[in-house]
Specification:
Order of helices and strands: EEHEHEHEE
Number of strands: 6
Number of helices: 3
Distance between the termini: 24 Å
CATH architecture: 3-Layer(aba) Sandwich
Strand order of the largest sheet: 5-4-3-6
CATH superfamily: Glycogen Phosphorylase B
Radius of gyration: 15 Å
Helix content: 25-40%
Oligomer: single chain
CATH topology: Rossmann fold
Length: 117
């Protein structure tokens, strides 16, 4: 596992024991996400200023060259609109919305690529 810098309740910490404990929390979604396939992960509020449509269009281009999955962690007022857009772009089988996750660090143990918008 890579070294993590964790932000907990707005407090930044690099204490390895806290980060390790968060990253080792049980992952309950393996039946939803194939953990053998690399995945791109986006963590954040689902709001217009995050420009998720741009992410989805870019992800569509990535799929032409690589077998990956996109995981969205977060909730917000744009959620239904974004889910519809994923369907309209024929990405539904490659994108999973998992909603708000109190501990997003547990996903760091797997092959993933973070996206920041």
């Amino acid at each position: 596992m890579a070294e993590l810098i964790c932000c907990i309740s707005g407090t930044k910490t690099t204490q390895p024991t806290i980060c390790k404990k968060l990253a080792e929390e049980k992952f309950l979604e393996p039946r939803i996400i194939n953990l053998k396939t690399p995945f791109i992960i986006s963590v954040g509020r689902l709001v217009k200023c995050k420009n998720y449509p741009y992410l989805f269009r870019a992800f569509g281009q990535v799929l032409k060259k690589a077998s990956v999955h996109l995981v969205i962690l977060g909730k917000g007022p744009e959620e239904n609109k974004l889910k519809k857009m994923v369907g309209d772009l024929f990405l539904s089988s490659h994108v999973t919305f998992l909603g708000f996750q109190k501990n997003p660090y547990k996903y760091h143990r797997y092959r993933f690529y973070p996206v920041i918008s």
